[in-house]
Protein: histidine kinase
Organism: Paenibacillus xanthanilyticus
Amino acid sequence: MTRIRDWLYTIGMASLSLLLFAIFCLLLTWNTLGDQGADESRSLHLSSGWQMHLGDLTAETGALAASADWMPYKFGDADSRLDGYRGYYWLRFRLPEQLRDEPNLHVQGFKHAELYTWSGQIYAFNMDRGIRLMNKELRWGMADLKPEDYGHHLYVRVYQDGGDPAEGLFRVGRMEHFLTQMLRHDAFRYLSCVVGLIAGMLAFILYALNRKDPIYLHFALFSVCVAYGSIIRAASLQLFADIPLLVYIQNIALSLGTGALLGFLAETFAGGWRIWFRRLAAAYYGYGAIVLGAAFIDDWLYHLMAEQLFAVTAVPLVLYILLALLRSGRHENRLETRLIMAGIWLLGIFTAVHYIDMNVVSISSRLFEPYPVAGALFKEAFVQLAVFAFILCLAGVLLVRYAKTHRQVKRYAQELAVKNDQLEAINSQRAEELRQRTEELQEAIQVTMDTMEEVVALEERNRIAHEMHDTVGHTLTATIMQMEVTKRLFDIDREAALQRLASAQDLVRSGLDQVRSSVRLMKDEAPAYDLRDAMIVLMRNTTQATQVEIEYSIDPLPQLPPGCSKVLYHALLEGLTNGMRHGRGTRFNCELTVGEDGVVLLLQNNGLPYDNAAYGFGLKAMNERVQLVGGSLRLSQSAEWGCELRVRLPLASTL
């Protein structure tokens, strides 16, 4: 199926090429219309009958006529007198009276020239030498002749700046006749320019749509160079846009166009061929930049580089391209390669025939009389036809490439649609799985929240129990001790027993107040209090209630958070309670010190020695509280004291 499509594209391109070629031939046929023989008879070519005077003369008709030293001169022959000459020289020619009815004189081929007749100066161009960069072969002018000028000499004042001698051309006739012939002669150039610009514009659009494929950009540059090279040599262009600089640097299109062509070919090859063609393209682009610089430096150097050196590299370059196409065609019989090969062969054959016609055998002159159209083709448009056919072949390559890209894009679109359907199915499946996972997660979150509520409730109950144990336990211990003393004194000293009973009653009231205070602390409603004063009050009340002896030493304390203050206060409370209840101590020593490593509470009693027994409920609760604020608790015995409680809180936790 692909081969059938390729052949269809080939047939379509061939049909389009034949159509455009037919249009070319029609225009060239129109170009041959008119009285060419009459045109030739009216042309005064500077080949015979001209005279020359080296050096400048006074620009007056009488002085020019009376001057001597006029020497025969013939254009087209090498004249050593003008080789490298710099300065003014004069030419003169007697205008024949039989051309008296022709009012205009067409002048071409001079860079600096003035024309004088019997009636005075009739033409002047660039004698002040303001225009330096100019192509004298394409520059033309028009002068008006009067009837009295015929039969007298036409004087031409020329300035030569050391370059090649002027190859001037003079034709006498009517202006409308010259313009008609000029437009007919340039018709195929305008058509080539339009075709090149349209092809370049379309290629630029394709490149803008697909910047990953630079072949469109190279073709666009090549087409623009061809269009520029075609239109800039049109003599009639001077009527619409007289820009001598653009005409002068026209040969830049050769180097830049060759670079664009090599860049185009590089995108049609693969592997090492592509690398070498890209290097050659970069080299010709750089060479074009150098030639452009030479155009502004020296005219001789510019023409040497733009024409002669370029022609030297053209032949091996064409051979290299043909070799690459042949080697590539053996491995890949692609339609693109065949089209490029056909275009290069056409260009080479047309160029060779044109060279033979211009330098070996004049085919155009032999064909012109019996076959005017064929003669015009050989003489005027053979190379342009070759370039035009070559552009058509390259355009065919672009069309094949674009069609192939279009098929690939279409195939990719189909594959993308399939992949999109698959992705939608996968997304639907993933969405369903995500919904199920979300429901499971919500259930797990609900279970976790219920569990957390139970844990919080349990922690709250434990906290309340610890608070009740710390606050009420000490008071009840002291009350029990008072009750035991009351029982022993009741039969011996009733008055003392009643006092002990009153003290127990006061302890119960104090315990009730402590319970209320603990409830407020649990609600975080307790007012701030001074830890040192609270500890002193606790030890004094304990001494009054239980008759135990308590010695203490408390350093000035920094501002402590309520949490740390509660930990230290309850540690002292638990230590006193356990020392009296379990250790049966009667004398206590309390020290609260502040050092660099933290706050240390030391509580010692003279009771039973500590036997490393497991912590009870109170000690466990105390140890948990100390650890929550980053501290440590240690219970031990010493030689002087039976039991020793040491609580250390780091300074970091107390700030």
In short: Residues 372-489 form the longest helix (118 residues). The two ends are 87 Å apart (CA to CA). The first strand starts at residue 43 and ends at 45. Confidence is low (pLDDT under 50) at residues 28-43.
